[in-house]
Write a structure and sequence with these properties.
The chain has three helices and four strands. By secondary structure, it is of the alpha+beta class. The chain has a single domain, classed as RelE-like (YaeB-like fold), CATH 3.30.2310.20. It has a four-stranded mixed beta sheet with strand order 1-4-3-2. A hairpin with a 2-residue loop joins β3 and β4 (98-106). α1 (20-36) packs antiparallel against α2 (39-59).
Length: 112
């Protein structure tokens, strides 16, 4: 099949690494979820979030380097991806063949 002059580029597969600070964010969220949801609901919510983090292995390079100061304070080449419900922002950067998730922050605190 031909797509005119446009060419499809091969997508790169990355390794995904979650930083210690991002793990702390996940642990804090898990503690909070257990106060407002039953165990199974909290587990499903976190499983969905971890699947989204893992999706960066395929889709990380689709996100541009951010220009927002609230994102760039975590890394000079930070990028962001919103969660499925847009309540969370995954802040990450790419080093060689690895995506490093720097933080997982509430989207409401990302304002500038």
């Amino acid at each position: 099949m031909q797509f005119g002059t446009a060419t499809l580029r091969k997508m790169k597969n990355y390794r995904v690494r979650v930083s210690r600070k991002a793990w702390n964010d996940i642990e804090d969220l898990a503690d909070f979820l257990l106060t407002v949801k039953d165990f199974e609901s909290a587990r499903r919510y976190l499983d969905t979030m971890m699947a989204e983090v893992q999706s960066l292995a395929l889709f990380a390079d689709l996100y541009r380097i951010s220009t927002m100061a609230d994102i760039l304070k975590y890394h000079l080449k930070a990028r962001r991806m919103a969660s499925h419900n847009r309540r969370w922002v995954y802040i990450f950067h790419i080093e060689d063949d690895t995506v490093i998730v720097d933080r997982i922050r509430p989207s409401k605190i990302i304002t500038k």
